[in-house]
Design goal:
Residues 370-642 form the CSC1/OSCA1-like 7TM region domain. GO terms for molecular function: calcium-activated cation channel activity. Residues 715-770 are annotated as: Disordered. The chain is mainly alpha-helical. The chain has 2 domains: 4-192 and 365-677, no CATH class; 195-350, no CATH class. The protein is 61% helix and 4% strand. The chain is built from 33 helices and 6 strands. It has a 4-stranded antiparallel β-sheet. The longest helix has 38 residues, at 453-490. It is globular, with a radius of gyration of 31 Å. 38% of the residues are buried.
Length: 770
């Protein structure tokens, strides 16, 4: 059976690998040649210059200051020095709040661990239940609830601790939710002017035979928001145009590469083969070939751009509508615009860099079908992965392997091999199986039709967490139990099986400890090393870079990766809350992860990551909800476990815990969540009033005119309405015109939408254009 010494050796292996990564990082980060890899954020902000431009030749590439090698861990205190308000200014509220998730873990689990080790570990250890049983167990299991005899009064200790842990967790969650909500409102109130503060996305614009989408949108908002409507930008289906632009960019990269190659050696012009992957076909001059290809694509792009602009079928029934004030935008985004609740649907527009343009052309009516298809696909994906999970769990127990393959006993019993199998192999094998999962889930989210990168990441994170819960957590417990206790299941009566499962649940703590060490400890150290960006940067810098702009594009700062990082953190919350009462020995490993990860990711956010968008911590309700879910699961599992321990007297008291937890969640949802989904009109009016007083002559229309133009149109010829947007809005009032032939003097809906006959409609066109 596994001992504490085996786990200690396994922990040493993982600590050694993490320390190796940290030492490599400490050496690589201070080399001048790697400066852009480990400090790209400062270069993108223009606050750091390359050390390669000054000093002796050798010192441009290698750091000759040996004192800096001695202080190889000085990056840790440096990462903690920047105050949170300065961090928010530097990296944004999303990044600062993301770091608070790690602090939240420390706030919850450090007190819980102290209480658990002071009270529950002695209660569990001072029994010999497992020693007198014929179950497969480890020394760690002797510290768990499995070592308490059936029907013992000691289970009251676990019941009281469950209540204490629940109340403490809820207290910390409420306090943190309140702090984050306040931070969000303060951030929005103090933030500089942004286009999304004045803009809403309008979808499902009803068709009209007499007016184009652009004219219909303008007409509708001039009539219904006459004092606040400013301008709008219709949405084009530019998928083909986008693919042509991407293709041209790829060809341009190859042309730059061959031109650089020729500039370094002008004795011979570079050539390439025109066939498949450059492996076959005629050999031609590479520079001439790509020059001709780019010229052809430029002409195609120009033709396609004109086609998209002029073809009414390329205009989607949606638009970005901007208002004169934040108050006007807030009213429009948070109210129903039409008596038909399925048309003129409004929502806050994502900030321009957050817009996922590829999904803007998806018809709104198809979204429900798409989401149904993805839900079915995700169901099959989740349960398909149970097969490799089952195989991985068979590696998590030495005794299980020896029973299945007795001839390997001598080899497996070698101390190093045994520790490697138990402490490293299962976790790394599971991680390999999960390596492609985030990409698959992101593809699913894109197919669903979400129109912002932040929404895509939040949906992917939700699915990733569900997958982790079913496969990594439940799959590990259930499948592991079957492998460990298969022989016992066969030779016992059916009514004994629930007891065997109940006892075996805490026995999976050994596997989860190794998973935390591999995925958490070594994973964080690997994240800060940035081996992949390091290799790719130097390859690009050697073969493709010829200007400073090229060198800047070769940097890969990356982002936080909310869709992968947050579900992983939530798995540790789940493990900590489930095993806090069952096997407290797991808690120190989780605490080490949260502390180490906080330092690592704080360093990365300050020096490396360049966040693609700013949602003002809109993801926090998801974070809060998943921790509540983990808390309820821990309570239900404890209830099931105690039912197998003949501690039925405690069941009525345990039922109260999930009820109280769900009530607490509903309280927080009603009290704090509105700050994350709606914008108070009071805050909007205050911000508008302040800005009018400070900048009375600011030209907002000019500020907004190109904010939501599709990127493929920027830099090229814009359509007539885009040109019209640049005109000054402060003109003499004119009547709102309509092209309807059937009702020349009314803005009432066309025959495709509902209409009313009333005197109000006859005079509605008299509203003045701003």
């Amino acid at each position: 059976m596994a001992s504490l010494g085996d786990i200690g050796l396994a922990a040493a292996i993982n600590l050694l690998s993490a320390l190796t990564f940290l030492i490599a990082f400490a050496v690589l980060r201070i080399q001048p040649i790697n400066d852009r890899v480990y400090f790209p954020k400062w270069y993108l902000k223009g606050l750091r210059t390359s050390p390669l431009h000054s000093g002796a030749f050798v010192s441009k590439f290698v750091n000759l200051d040996f004192n800096s090698y001695i202080r190889f861990l000085n990056w840790m205190p440096a990462a903690l020095q920047m105050p949170e308000p300065e961090l928010i200014d530097h990296a944004g509220l999303d990044s600062a709040v993301y770091l608070r998730i790690y602090l939240l873990g420390l706030k919850i689990f450090v007190p819980i661990a102290l209480l658990a080790f002071s009270v529950m570990v002695p209660v569990n250890w001072t029994n010999d239940t497992l020693k007198r049983s014929n179950l497969v167990y480890s020394s760690i299991d002797k510290l768990s609830i499995s070592n308490i005899p059936l029907g013992s009064n000691r289970f009251w200790t676990h019941l009281v601790m469950a209540y204490a842990f629940t109340f403490w967790t809820c207290y910390i969650l409420k306090r943190e939710y309140q702090i984050i909500a306040t931070m969000r409102l303060h951030f929005l109130a103090s933030e500089r002017r942004r286009p999304d503060q004045f803009t809403v996305l309008v979808r499902n614009v009803p068709p009209d035979p007499d007016e184009s989408v652009s004219e219909l949108v303008e007409h509708f908002f001039l009539v219904n928001h006459p004092d606040h409507y400013l301008t709008h930008q219709v949405i084009y289906n530019a998928k083909k145009l986008s693919s042509l632009v991407a293709k041209k960019k790829k060809k341009q990269n190859w042309l730059d590469y061959y031109q650089l190659k020729y500039s370094r050696n002008q004795t011979e012009r570079p050539t390439k083969k025109t066939g498949f992957l450059g492996l076959c076909g005629n050999r031609v001059d590479a520079i001439d070939f790509y020059t001709d290809e780019i010229d052809k694509l430029s002409k195609e792009i120009e033709l396609e751009r004109e086609k998209v602009i002029k073809d009414p079928k390329s205009i989607m029934p949606a638009a970005f509508v901007s208002f004169r004030t934040r108050w006007g935008a807030a009213v429009c985004a948070q109210t129903q615009q039409s008596r038909n609740p399925t048309t003129w649907l409004t929502e806050w527009a994502p900030e321009p860099r957050d817009v996922y343009w590829n999904n803007m052309a998806i018809p709104y009516v198809s979204l429900t079908i798409r989401r149904l298809i993805v839900a079915v696909a995700f169901f099959f994906l989740t349960f398909f992965f149970m097969i490799p999970i089952a195989f991985v769990q068979s590696l998590a127990n030495i005794e299980g392997i020896e029973k299945a393959a007795p001839f390997l006993r001598a080899f497996i019993e070698i101390p190093f091999i045994k520790s490697f199998i138990q402490g490293f192999l299962p976790g790394i094998a599971l991680k390999i199986f999960l390596i492609f999962l985030p990409t698959i889930l992101m593809i699913m989210s894109k197919f669903e039709g979400f129109i912002s990168t932040s929404a895509l990441e939040r949906r992917s994170a939700t699915r990733y967490y569900i997958f982790q819960f079913i496969n990594v957590f439940l799959g590990s417990i259930i499948t592991g139990t079957a492998f460990q206790q298969l022989d016992k299941f066969i030779h016992q009566s059916a009514n004994e099986i629930p007891k065997t499962i109940g006892v075996s649940i805490p026995m999976k703590a050994t596997f989860f400890i190794t998973y935390i060490m591999v995925d958490g400890w070594a994973g964080c150290a690997g994240e800060i090393l940035r081996l992949k960006p390091l290799i790719f940067y130097h390859l690009k810098n050697t073969f493709l870079v010829k200007t400073e702009k090229d060198r800047e594009e070769a940097m890969d700062p990356g982002t936080i990766g909310f869709n992968t990082g947050e579900p992983q953190i939530q798995l540790y919350f789940l493990l900590g809350l489930v095993y806090a009462v069952v096997t407290p020995f797991l808690l120190p490993y989780i605490i080490v992860f949260f502390g180490f990860a906080y330092v690592v990711y704080r360093h990365q956010i300050i020096n490396v990551y360049n966040q693609e968008y700013e949602s003002a911590a809109a993801f926090w309700p998801d974070v809060h909800g998943r921790i509540i879910f983990a808390l309820v699961i821990s309570q239900l599992l404890l209830m099931g476990l105690l039912s197998t321990k003949e501690a039925s007297n405690s069941t009525p008291l345990l039922i109260t815990l999930p009820v109280l937890t769900i009530w607490f969640h509903r309280f927080c949802k009603g009290r704090y969540e509105p700050a994350f989904i709606r914008h108070p009109l009071q805050e909007a009016m205050m911000k508008d009033t302040l800005e009018r007083a400070r900048e009375p002559n600011f030209n907002l229309k000019e500020f907004l005119q190109s904010a939501y133009i599709h990127p493929v149109f920027k830099g090229g010829d814009e359509d007539s309405e885009s040109e019209a947007m640049s005109e000054e809005g402060e003109q003499e009032p004119v009547l709102v015109q309509t092209k309807r032939q059937s009702r020349k003097n009314t803005p009432a809906p066309s025959k495709h939408s509902s209409s009313l006959s009333s005197p109000l409609h006859e005079s509605a066109d008299k509203h003045l254009r701003p």
